């Protein structure tokens, strides 16, 4: 689907599962099947090399691998969030929401922000067709009258692409830091506030974020929750940052970024995009600009459902059909790095290796299937184990993690039901191949 934008503000590209699978999954079964068990994943053994993160933490501290528990869907419906610390400077994150032809989804997201984060600062960039924009504008106006949250709204012609729309808005904002949020994804704003603080405090950092929980509704009977865990990529050596990211990529388009980084990102995406390599390309181009700071908390509760359209590969051979684009990406990255002063031979080796790893994942051999991958960095570290344990606890009754997110997940579940039953979120089947 070359030259087409991700539907309705989906900033992730295709389902990033090939890049992020293996961290942890949860299959959500119809009511009555129960939670199931949590299977361990022993990874200790002689000769395993410790990563510096483990040494700094005083040794290996791995908890059980979450495995594939099968919780009742109601387990997703989790409780009041904890209060924020008041001993730091106040942070109000600018949240930019692109939307297109999904008024029920947009309204649900804005209701979520009004209920849980009435102090949020929101900008809606609406690229919907004329039959949908009046609904969006009317609801935003009602929020503006109530004053909670603060919402700005700008309508665009539906022929203007997502990336052009975002570029236009970003050029007009005066915020130093911005968080991008699709209209069917729900931010954990206190994590974004923490990310903004760490971003501002870290020399050379250009973006920051926390873990993502993806809740994919595949049909009326099946859904899967999946963890997309982040980690620090703060080396002063840009090629080392790219190597560490390429070893186990994660979605970087959600979080908080400096506005100039986002302007650069979406200018680039107006000239290059490829479905299967979208997230990798975004991560690599952003890391050339600067460091990524990971926050060990959930930052977004992302949803994707059967009545929403989104980027999908054309077929199983999409990676071959887009071979020219992949080579072009490789060459662009190498040239940018060499122009910035990197040694040409090492640069070619690093970029080529990262692109080849992603290609292996696309054809069915992602990193976590490699022998020994689960015993080494970046998978087997205290930070990643902590993320997997948090994700597992999200589905266990009585845990602090479940209590912390219960009320928000209940709201999201109810809103997803409304979206599935609505008639105004059908997407554009002719363009995106909606189910």
TrEMBL record:
The keyword Transferase applies. Keywords: Transferase. The lineage of its organism: Bacteria, Bacillati, Actinomycetota, Actinomycetes, Propionibacteriales. InterPro entries: Glyco_TIGR04440, Nucleotide-diphossugar_trans. Residues 1-15, 36-57 have a biased composition (Basic and acidic residues). SUPFAM superfamilies: Nucleotide-diphospho-sugar transferases. Residues 58-68 have a biased composition (Basic residues). This is TIGR00180 family glycosyltransferase. NCBIfam families: glyco_TIGR04440 (TIGR04440). CDD domains: Glyco_tranf_GTA_type (cd00761). GO terms for molecular function: transferase activity. Residues 1-75 are annotated as: Disordered. The keyword Methyltransferase does not apply.
């Amino acid at each position: 689907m070359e030259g087409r934008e991700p539907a309705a503000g989906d900033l992730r590209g295709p389902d990033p599962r090939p890049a992020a699978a293996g961290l942890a999954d949860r299959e959500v079964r119809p009511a009555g099947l129960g939670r199931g068990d949590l299977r361990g994943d022993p990874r200790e053994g002689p000769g395993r090399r410790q990563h510096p993160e483990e040494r700094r933490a005083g040794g290996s501290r791995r908890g059980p691998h979450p495995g594939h528990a099968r919780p009742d869907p109601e387990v997703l419906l989790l409780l009041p969030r904890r209060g924020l610390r008041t001993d730091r400077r106040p942070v109000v994150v600018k949240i930019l929401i692109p939307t297109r032809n999904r008024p029920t989804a947009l309204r649900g997201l804005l209701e979520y922000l009004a209920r849980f984060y009435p102090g949020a600062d929101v900008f809606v960039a609406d690229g919907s067709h004329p039959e949908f924009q009046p609904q969006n504008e009317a609801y935003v106006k009602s929020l503006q009258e109530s004053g909670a949250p603060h919402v700005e709204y700008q309508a665009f012609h539906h022929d203007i692409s997502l990336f052009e729309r975002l570029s236009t808005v970003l050029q007009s904002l005066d915020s130093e830091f911005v968080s991008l949020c699709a209209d069917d994804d729900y931010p954990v704003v206190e994590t974004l506030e923490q990310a903004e603080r760490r971003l501002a405090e870290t020399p050379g950092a250009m973006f920051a974020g926390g873990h993502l929980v993806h809740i994919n509704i595949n049909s009326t009977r099946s859904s899967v929750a999946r963890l997309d865990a982040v980690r620090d990529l703060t080396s002063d050596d840009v090629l080392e940052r790219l190597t560490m990211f390429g070893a186990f990529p994660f979605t970087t388009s959600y979080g908080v970024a400096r506005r100039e980084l986002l302007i650069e990102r979406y200018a680039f995406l107006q000239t290059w995009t490829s479905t299967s390599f979208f997230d990798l390309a975004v991560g690599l181009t952003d890391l050339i600009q600067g460091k990524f700071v990971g926050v060990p908390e959930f930052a977004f509760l992302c949803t994707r459902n059967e009545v929403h359209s989104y980027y999908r590969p054309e077929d199983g051979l999409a990676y071959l059909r887009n071979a020219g684009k992949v080579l072009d990406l490789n060459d662009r990255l190498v040239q940018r790095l060499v122009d910035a002063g990197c040694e040409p031979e090492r640069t070619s080796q690093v970029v080529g290796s990262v692109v080849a790893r992603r290609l292996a994942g696309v054809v069915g051999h992602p990193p976590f299937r490699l022998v020994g991958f689960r015993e080494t960095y970046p998978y087997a570290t205290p930070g990643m184990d902590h993320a997997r344990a948090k994700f597992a606890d999200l589905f266990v009754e009585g845990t602090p993690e479940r209590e912390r997110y219960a009320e928000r997940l209940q709201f999201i579940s109810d809103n997803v039901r409304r979206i599935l039953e609505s008639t105004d979120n059908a997407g554009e089947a002719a363009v995106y191949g909606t189910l």
